[in-house]
Amino acid sequence: xxxxxDELELRFKQIHxxxxxxxxxNLPVLNFQNEIALLVEMGQKPTLGYRLELVNNNLLASDGGxxxxxxxxxxxxxxxxxxxISSPCLxxxxxxxxxxxxxxKDSKGNLRVVAD
Length: 116
Known about the structure:
The protein is mostly beta strands.
């Protein structure tokens, strides 16, 4: 979880370090008194065609945890793909709440990520 502007800037720079034309003025705007950011990463993949998708915009909070549903999308086995290393990720803005961790489940209900 990203809960301050310096950490957001650092993570954003890490994501875009190899992006041509990157401009640090394009940072997402967050009010860190009321919001936090969550960076969800798939890790390095051997081709294009991987992505993360929110199932819905609902954040369910209970028992000290916040729950988000996401789809981990992989390309079809027979798809024609560029052979290029990719690192799919999704940066989410969340309202601050009374939760200590964020748990992300995939569309099958499998726990994929626990962020403290």
